[in-house]
Structure formats: structure tokens, C-alpha cells
């Protein structure tokens, strides 16, 4: 009996390794990319698989008038796939959209499948769209020639398994992933000028709170740069 159990466990283990490897996941560093239409042709989504515990429904976010976007109403969004119910390779034609349009995709995590399937919705694009303020989708350009691959993570805060983006993958032609630029301050041809300390130490009271982290001061007499972090001023 024990041998039989071991054999079944071995086969189950092999099957789970195989299924984990048998579908594509978009590559790292594409987290938080937006999905942008790049031709006037039909956008056809192809389901590429999952290894998720949670049952996830994939939607294209639409407004009441049927154009892409978020109007705060989930009921008029377009259902595309369910990661457990849809056939691998099945396709849905999303239609045609003007070049440059962002298509926002959402997964709804059905809460019945496990303790960690919370009934949340997660979105393609930047982290601020998601309830845990973390990115939940990767968008890999040219996964195949002119075909992008999108992969979702369905766990709130990545608890308990982390962010492996293995919970629903689909691909489509005629779109591209676009990196969301973070704001930066550039002073071209000029300088950013720190406060100077004239040989003194920076004051501890100026480096106490989380909002102080990143502050910098410069001791021009001794040539020391001070930067505030969680353990106080550090010098270089
Ligand atoms: Ca909507
Ligand atoms: Ca996952």
C-alpha cells in the first residue's frame, strides 16, 4: 500500500512539475507594463494556460459605450477566459481599436477556491491600480513574432507563494507592452545643490521619520555626503 502511495505521489509530483513548465510566463522586468494597440487589425486573445490554485476570470475593461477604459462598472466589461474553465489555445476576438489605445485587462479572483483567493480584482499596468499597490501582470513584447504575452499573479501582496505570475497567461498579436515611465527630475545644464554643513554633523532630528529617508546633506569642509535612511544618517 505504501509503495502504491509513493508511486501515486511520484506521478502527481511529475505531473505538477510538467504542468508548471508546460505553459509560458512572460519574462521578468515587464511587470507593470501597459498593453497598447499598435495596428488597426482585430485583436485576438489566445489562452496560454496557468498553474493557479485560484479560479480567475479575465476581462477586458470597457466603458458603458463599449470603448476600452475603466468606468468603475465591472458589469459592462468583456469576459474573455477563465483559467480553469477555458480550453488551452482557445481564442476570443476583442475587436478593433484605434492605434495607441491602452487595453486594460483585469482578473477577478473567485473567492471559493482557497483561503488565499480573496475575491480581489487585479489589473495590467502600474501598481497603483491594484488594491495591494503591487504590480500583478507582466507584458512581454515579441514573445512570438508580433505577438505579446501577458501573465497575471492572483495573490494579494503575493501571500503566501510570492509573485511568480503563473496564474493566467494569454497572448495576442497587434499589441505591444509599454513601460510605464516613473517621474524624474532632470536639471539639464544645471545642478542640484545640497545644503552644506561646514564641518558639522547633520542633526539627528532631521532623520527620524520615514518621510525623511533619502534626504541628503554635504559637508563641504571634509568632503562627506550624508544620506538619511532607516538607521539614521549614513555617510560616504
Ligand atoms: Ca467597465
Ligand atoms: Ca502565483
From TrEMBL:
Keywords of the record: Signal
Keyword Signal: yes
First and last residue of the signal peptide: 1-22
Protein name: DUF4114 domain-containing protein
Organism of this sequence: Thiorhodococcus drewsii AZ1
Amino acid at each position: 500500500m505504501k509503495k502504491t502511495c509513493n508511486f501515486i505521489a511520484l506521478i502527481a509530483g511529475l505531473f505538477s512539475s510538467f504542468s508548471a513548465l508546460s505553459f509560458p510566463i512572460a519574462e521578468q522586468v515587464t511587470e507593470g507594463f501597459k498593453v497598447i494597440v499598435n495596428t488597426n487589425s482585430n485583436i485576438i486573445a489566445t489562452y496560454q494556460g496557468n498553474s493557479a490554485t485560484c479560479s480567475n476570470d479575465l476581462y477586458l475593461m470597457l466603458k458603458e459605450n463599449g470603448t476600452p477604459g475603466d468606468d468603475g462598472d465591472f458589469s459592462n466589461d468583456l469576459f474573455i477566459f477563465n483559467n480553469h474553465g477555458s480550453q488551452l489555445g482557445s481564442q476570443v476576438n476583442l475587436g478593433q481599436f484605434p492605434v495607441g489605445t491602452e487595453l486594460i485587462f483585469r482578473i477577478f479572483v473567485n473567492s471559493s477556491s482557497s483561503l488565499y483567493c480573496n475575491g480581489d480584482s487585479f489589473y495590467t499596468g502600474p501598481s497603483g491600480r491594484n488594491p495591494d499597490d503591487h504590480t500583478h501582470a507582466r507584458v512581454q513584447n515579441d514573445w512570438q513574432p508580433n505577438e505579446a504575452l501577458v501573465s497575471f499573479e492572483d495573490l494579494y501582496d503575493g501571500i503566501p507563494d510570492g509573485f511568480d505570475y503563473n496564474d493566467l497567461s494569454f497572448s495576442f498579436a497587434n499589441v505591444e507592452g509599454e513601460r510605464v515611465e516613473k517621474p524624474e527630475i532632470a536639471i539639464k545644464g544645471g545642478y542640484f545643490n545640497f545644503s552644506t554643513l561646514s564641518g558639522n554633523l547633520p542633526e539627528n532630528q532631521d532623520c527620524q521619520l520615514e518621510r525623511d529617508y533619502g534626504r541628503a546633506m554635504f559637508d563641504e569642509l571634509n568632503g562627506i555626503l550624508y544620506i538619511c535612511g532607516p538607521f539614521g544618517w549614513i555617510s560616504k
